[in-house]
Amino acid sequence: MFVKTLAETLGTADHVTGEAFESRRILLARDGLGYSFHDTLIMAGSTQRLEYKNHVEANYCIEGEGEVEEVATGRRWTLRPGSMYVLDAHDAHIIRARTDMRLICVFTPALSGAETHDADGSYNLPG
């Protein structure tokens, strides 16, 4: 057993910030669990197109409001605390944040923590 805190992640290389998001990567591949666990902030008014071609991702909203759109169909779902969306088929999607949002995210396979989004919004497979 081990214990980690968000405070231990903040301000480290595992605390990744971008123009529209902050990813606090609490569990990563080096933890040997087969998945990674992230506490992610999405900034109000932002829109991000993402497509995780090499990962399955589950997201659980704990704060804020926005929507997720499935690119292939144009179907949209409102996100608010208690909503979960799962990208189980490497779905291209668009996240729109109406307010600041906070998501708890799980990726499999686990991220190393050094990934950055490619031009198409995906991450490479761990090397």
CATH fold type of the domain at 33-108: Jelly Rolls
Q: What is the CA–CA distance across the termini?
A: 26 Å
Strand content: 35-45%
Q: How would you name the CATH homologous superfamily of the domain at 33-108?
A: Jelly Rolls
Shape: globular
Keywords: Lyase
Pfam families: Ectoine_synth (PF06339)
Catalytic activity: (2S)-4-acetamido-2-aminobutanoate = L-ectoine + H2O
Protein name: L-ectoine synthase
Explain this structure.
- The protein has a domain at 33-108: Jelly Rolls, CATH 2.60.120.10.
- It starts with 5 loop residues before the first helix and ends in a 19-residue tail after the last strand.
- It contains one helix and ten strands; from the N terminus they run H-E-E-E-E-E-E-E-E-E-E.
- The chain is mainly β and 127 residues long.
- 3% of the residues lie in helices and 43% in strands.
- The chain is globular, with a radius of gyration of 14 Å.
Index terms:
single chain; 127 residues; mainly beta; Jelly Rolls; 6-stranded antiparallel beta sheet; 4-stranded antiparallel beta sheet; 1 helix
Layout of strands and helices, then pairs:
Elements: H1 6-9, E1 15-17, E2 21-27, E3 36-42, E4 47-50, E5 56-63, E6 66-70, E7 76-79, E8 84-87, E9 93-97, E10 101-108
Antiparallel strand pairs: 1-2, 2-3, 3-10, 4-9, 5-8, 5-10, 6-7, 6-9
Short description:
By secondary structure, the chain is mainly beta.
